[in-house]
Every structure is written in C-alpha cells, then in structure tokens.
Amino acid sequence: MKIITILYIVNATFLLLHEIESAYEKEWEILKLPGKITGFLLLHIPIIILLFYGLIEIERNSAVGLIFGIITGIGGVIPFIVHKIIVKTTNNFNLLISNIIIYLNILSGAGLLFLSARLLA
C-alpha cells in the first residue's frame, strides 16, 4: 500500500470521527444549518460515498484520485479552521479526544494535500 493511500485512509478516518462527534455536538445548531439531524445525516450520504470512491481512485493513482486527495486533505484542515479559529466555543469540541482528532486531522490533511498536489503537478 502506498503512503498516499495510507494518508488518505487516516485523514478520512479522522474526518468521519469528527463528523460522528459533530452529530453529538449538534453541529447543525452551531453552524445554523437547516434540517436538524435529518438534514445533517442526508448531507453526509454523498460525502461518505465520495470518500470511498476517492480511496479507490487514489489507490489507482489517477488524476481524479489525486484531486480527491487534495479535496479530502483540505477537508482535514477545515475542522481546525472552523472550530479553533472561526467558531471558537468553550462548550463544543473541547474534550481531549476532540482536540486529538482535530489536530491529527489537520496533520494528516495537510500531508495528504501536499502529497496529492505534488504528485498531480
């Protein structure tokens, strides 16, 4: 298995863990998203399907896979930007495990973003 595939899997895992916690934290209320839990879950159906498809393409080392790697890498950076910079709250995403997930997600996301962009170039 290639390092880019491993980075993709690790980053996607942290993204999914963060999204599980997002449901617990009722992120739709924090970000004022419509549809409550139903809308939140429905929003994640295409996201999860695309994550799995991206894994297939990244393993094939296709240009589409590398683009998915870039997008997923950016996705790994977003939870840090949103929860630690833009929407800083003391009541949400501040457990030790929350911070571990967010910080490992930014590291794996940045690594995936860098490697995907470099291989695509």
Mean pLDDT: 94
Percent range of helical residues: over 70%
Radius of gyration: 15 Å
Number of helices: 5
Largest sheet: none
The string of secondary-structure elements, in order, is HHHHH
- How many strand units? 0
User: How many domains, in number, for the residues?
Assistant: 1
> Can you tell me the residue ranges where pLDDT is under 50 for at least 5 consecutive residues?
none
Give the termini separation.
Answer: 21 Å
Beta-strand content: under 5%
Task: Supply the helix-strand structural class.
Answer: mainly alpha
- Taken from the alpha-carbon principal axes, the silhouette is globular
What does this 3D model show about the protein?
The protein has about 120 residues and is mainly alpha-helical. The protein has one domain (about 5-120). Helices cover about 85% and strands about 0% of the residues. The protein has helices at about 5-25, 25-30, 35-60, 65-85, 95-120. Helix 1 packs antiparallel against helix 3, helix 1 (about 5-25) packs parallel to helix 4 (about 65-85) and helix 4 (about 65-85) runs antiparallel to helix 5. The longest helix has 25 residues, at about 35-60. It is globular. The mean pLDDT is about 95.
Write a concise keyword list for the protein shown above.
121 residues; globular; mainly alpha
Please summarize what this structure is.
83% of the residues lie in helices and 0% in strands.
Topology:
Layout: H1 3-24, H2 27-30, H3 36-60, H4 63-86, H5 96-120
